[in-house]
Amino acid sequence: MNHVNEQMFNALLDNRTIMLTGEINDVSAEMVTMALLYLDAQAVAPIHLYINSCGGSVYAMNSIVDTMNLIKSPVHTYNIGLAASAAGIILLNGEKGHRYATPNATTMLHQPIGGAEGSSMDVEIAVEQLKFIREKMFEFCSKKTGKSVKQIKADLQRDKYFTAEQALKYGIIDVILKTDKGGK
Q1: Is 148 a known active-site residue?
Q2: Among residues 114, 115, 110, which one has the least CA distance to residue 87?
Q3: CATH of region 3-168, choose from 3.40.1280.10, 3.40.50.620, 3.90.226.10, 3.60.15.10
Q4: Is 110 annotated as catalytic?
Q5: What was the pLDDT predicted at 116?
């Protein structure tokens, strides 16, 4: 991290704000989870997680989601562009009533994607793991949106894109932010 980025990162932390941008991988997940733990240790107060990401690793996503759920501070999530795939799940995991999107934001949810190579047994094991992750994700989305698991399964057979209005109606977010200088 260069000096300017470090200064901005620290200034955002001073305001209990974290940015999650780009690919969700081990490095970005480490930064977000460290920031969540640090801010929670400072005070139990809302943490603001701004998201503009095309997604990434389900395992890196799980570390962020699990940390959000472990800490005492509520995490308010904001889709400020694109919250796709793993990023959409992180958005959905925000504190109920405090999941936001800007008017032009897009959210995309889909089934987990994976690949496998190796022996036929290794491929079978990887397929079973992917199915397990998929079922857990369907249950998670059902719990967070209020939709039935059956509906989630039907809706997420393929990539499912949501405008801010559609995400609000579906239960992914709770509020569409106003982009005029008036705020929420």
Answers
A1: no
A2: 110
A3: 3.90.226.10
A4: yes
A5: 75
